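Data follows
____________
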Amino acid sequence: MPAKPKWAQIVDSIRAQIESGELAPGDKLPSTSQLCAQHSVSAIVVRQAINALKIEGLVEGVGGVGVFVAER
């Protein structure tokens, strides 16, 4: 069975942090560059993960400010 894509691994990681309460509604996610460094991936991969989280309704982007955990 092939390994899960890196972007999906990042989604799983952030989702788990939200579900455990480690990241609460309104909390700001680390910047793209921080996530790149944490997961050893490119910015494109991080953006793909963030977009997937937005589609799931778990996070919201605020232009020029950052990405935040969505209110439930």
Remarks:
- The two ends are 34 Å apart (CA to CA).
